[in-house]
Amino acid sequence: MALDPVQLVTFQAVINEGSFEAAARSLHVTPSAVSQRIKALEQAVGQVLVRRGKPCEPTEAGTALVRLAGQTALLEREALDAARGPVAGGHTRTRVAVVVNADSLATWFLPALAGLTAEGGLAFDIHQDDQDHTADILRAGTAMAAVTAQQVPVQGCRVERLGAMRYLAMAAPALRRAHFAGTDVVAGFATAPMIVLNRKDRLQHRFLGTLTKRTLDPPIHYVPAAAAFVEAVRLGLGWGLVPERIAVEDIAAGRCVDLTPGRHLDVPLYWQYWRLESTVLTTLTTAVRAGAATALR
């Protein structure tokens, strides 16, 4: 059975835009037309493909079709660009959806993309999630590549190791004096407030477990942005694990101190991307690989 390409494009638009109405606007058709196309596609497949909510999300059956729609659109765009050539009006921009963890996004990932945007031809749609969860967006089909802590490849994807991001346990000098004046480091971590990015972020808990061999329950401040997270540490709201390349500058300047000299947390990161023979993915992967080589251990 051949899938209707118009229905497939419409299905992708509903998932990417989050609603039938937004998909209709992006496709320049009526919401009724979008609804009819989705209904026809679901009848052809014999499965419900969209969870009608806010936003609309693919069902388990629809996830594979989201990925298929994105891959088809990417290969079609590259084929058209190759056929038309530069004299036929230039290349239209290819939208590239990637998902990245907050600390990579705040440090090395954007510089890796800068050369690609300067060359033109690509428009990035960057999603952010915890490194232990970025592969979920890739698995859902709404991103074509991910920086992730997951080594096992998502179905239909390639995976390669980028390196490890090193974190140091950093705090403002005043916080160290208040909670770590004695020799009992465990007691200090048990009472000192801790900065956590969000409720998915388990880095600090993982570090404490490795360091103390105990389950501690310190006070927690949730600060859901990488730059604000570091600023909260600098201001003494609590301690937190900060990427080494940021931490060493603050420590050298005296703004912060390393709470556990000689102890750190290394988080291996991987690049997962669709298993396609695609010029865009090859170019993107080369840039990400080069950026990671200069920033990760």
UniProtKB/TrEMBL annotation:
PROSITE patterns registered for this protein in UniProt: HTH_LYSR
InterPro entries, A to Z: ArgP, LTTR, LysR_HTH_N, LysR_subst-bd, WH-like_DNA-bd_sf, WH_DNA-bd_sf
Any single Pfam family the record assigns to this protein: HTH_1
Keywords noted in UniProt: Activator, DNA-binding, Transcription, Transcription regulation
Domain HTH lysR-type: start-end pairs: 3-59
NCBIfam families (UniProt xref): argP, PRK03635.1, PRK13348.1
Similarity comment: Belongs to the LysR transcriptional regulatory family.
Name by which UniProt lists this protein: LysR family transcriptional regulator ArgP
Organism: Polymorphospora lycopeni
